[in-house]
Amino acid sequence: MPEATTPEIVIPNAQNVLLLHGPKQQYRIERDYPIPKTSGKDEVLIKNSVIGLNPIDWKAPDFNFGIPELPYISGRECSGEVVQVPDQHTKLKIGDRVISISTDYRDLRKGAYQEYAVALSYNTVRLPPNVSLEDGSTLGVAFVAAALALGVSLGVDFSDVLDGPDLFSLLRSIGEDSLPKDIREECLASIESHERARSGDWLAIWGGELTSSTRMGESPSNNFPGSATSANLIIQLARLAGLKIVAVVDKAKHGLRLANHAVIRPDLLVDSHDPERAVDIIRANTGGHLRFGIDTRGKDTAAKLLQALSPGAPSKRSTMAPPSPPATPEDSTRLRAHLVGLTGLPKGPAPEASLFHTVPVKLYHEVPAVGEALSLWLERLLANGLIHAPEIIDIEEGLENVNKGLDRMRRGEISGGKLIVRV
């Protein structure tokens, strides 16, 4: 048989982009904008086909945060086709259908709001034939957030799930000098080995709508890019690892959908309407064994979730563990409660025997070993049908209609799923 040849891809000299020129402004389309240039062995060029919209894309200009320079190219996730790779690159090939996950918001070349974008090869996920470009555009940032929250902050080991990463061990093998200074403590000192979440443990997720909660006129708690659909992916990954899930949501809006959902149905569904009652229900049904919580709403609900945790109480599975060696100090086996805040944490320091966590998102793009491990694992999960994309609520057509889509998100019209834009 003749050797397969690389398909010929013609890259134009210019493209259309959406630019943000100032706070509280809409994005403006600009034509004949330069195609971004790749540099180095780890960068590829993607022709964008579908963009996934995230809450930060409208919150950032409205509240003037997370904008490193002006004019700015926004957008954190998209799907499309690889059109340029470095010489002798072994993973990606020209013509591959991929997800590009850009957690590096400071590099405008990687913004999704343009026809062509640069991507790090280890932040690029090849799509299997069974996953559409539309579905692929919905889950990248949420997957990264979920995997890091569970694997780093809560210590979940995914080794038994299609040879997934054990991020707790991986980060310690890399060493602190390879980690950004501002996240080293979260990566290496935030949870001890004996405290790690394991199969059979309870995890509570206070997710409100499992979608974006901020409405027009409300100030966001921080600039986390993917909190809108992260609860969905947290539930999926946690379930694969054997954790038992408590989901706290507005049952009037989402109770029936979640209760009947084949993918993200929790073990315990609690109404968020009365937060104090929700805390009582959680504590009663978990028997005082809940040590792990993730909040996707903000500091107020994170404070309520903290009340539901039981610091210092052993989990059911931990009572079966062998005793510590005699030389181990007594307090080293203490099991603390761990609360992850995707969009905010309670005011003040964590109470005794509890720890607060923020997700070290920059691990994904600044530490190649972490980015590669997560991207390759997502490829396997998708190929084997173990991860499902969030539901697509609607589709806008064309870069010029991104603003229309963001306006719909501002008004709170997109609930329970994702809004995407075909480029």
Automatic annotation (TrEMBL):
The keyword Secreted does not apply. Keywords: Oxidoreductase. One of its GO terms (molecular function) is oxidoreductase activity, acting on NAD(P)H. Pfam families: ADH_N. Residues 309-331 are annotated as: Disordered. Gene3D superfamilies: Medium-chain alcohol dehydrogenases, catalytic domain, NAD(P)-binding Rossmann-like Domain. Residues 22-421 form the Enoyl reductase (ER) domain. It comes from the Eukaryota. The keyword Oxidoreductase applies. InterPro entries: ADH-like_N, ER, GroES-like_sf, Lipid_raft_assoc_Zn_ADH, NAD(P)-bd_dom_sf, Trans-enoyl_RdTase-like. PANTHER family: PROTEIN AST1-RELATED (PTHR43482), ZINC-BINDING DEHYDROGENASE FAMILY, PUTATIVE (AFU_ORTHOLOGUE AFUA_3G15030)-RELATED (PTHR43482:SF2). Belongs to the zinc-containing alcohol dehydrogenase family. This is Enoyl reductase (ER) domain-containing protein. It comes from Thyridium curvatum.
